[in-house]
Amino acid sequence: MIKAACHCGAVRFAVAAAPKWVLDCSCTLCRRYGALWTYCIGDDPVTLVARPDPAATATYSWNMNYYAFHHCRTCGCITHFEQIEPGPTQIIGVNARMMVGLDGPNIPIRRIDNGHVGWLWSRADQPLIPGNHPPMSAPGPDDWR
């Protein structure tokens, strides 16, 4: 099981196993959110085993109001999106950046130019820059960060 949570921990969910791939999208919303999406439907879906508390999130929908994008009411992290009518409401995608303990370098990133800009932010043009934040303590069994 892979645990996931927003920064403050108010929105928590879990998937049965790590995603086989994540999607970087350049649409007007996703490029602003900076999310890497994994999906509960379609190709290689993740299985949601713990749903987030709906009271912990607020939503934003745009255009035809087909999807509701959920963010934490406290810290603002974008956590997931779900289908709005027509059909039953269901979680469609979750933000893989909220998942704890993923082996990120080994999860392929699929890139889609839905914004028709001709480029995306996710690329490895240069080596990683070492961080200057102090190291965090090792996560414990009840840690969702």
The overall average pLDDT, rounded, is 89
What is the count of DSSP helices, taking H or I runs of 4+ residues?
1
Total DSSP E strands:
10
**Low-confidence spans:** none
The assigned structural class equals: mainly beta
The CATH topology is given as Metal Binding Protein, Guanine Nucleotide Exchange Factor, Chain A
Beginning-to-end CA distance, first to last residue: 15 Å
| Rg over C-alpha atoms, rounded to the nearest angstrom | 16 Å
Order of H and E elements? EEEHEEEEEEE
Instruction: State the CATH architecture.
Output: Beta Complex
Strand content: 25-35%
The number of domains is 1
- The proportion of residues forming helix, as a percent range, comes to under 10%
CATH level-1 class: Mainly Beta
Main β-sheet, spatial strand arrangement = 4-9-8-7-6
Main beta sheet strand tally, sense and closure: 5 strands, antiparallel
Overall 3D shape: globular
Question: How would you sum up this structure, described in words?
Answer:
The two termini are 15 Å apart. It is built from one helix and ten strands, in the order E-E-E-H-E-E-E-E-E-E-E. It has one domain (2-112): Metal Binding Protein, Guanine Nucleotide Exchange Factor, Chain A (Beta Complex). Helix content is 3%, strand content 30%. The strands form three sheets. The chain has a five-stranded antiparallel β-sheet, with no helix packed on it. A three-stranded antiparallel β-sheet has the order 1-2-5, with no helix packed on it. A hairpin with a 6-residue loop joins strand 1 and strand 2 (12-15). The chain is an all-beta fold.
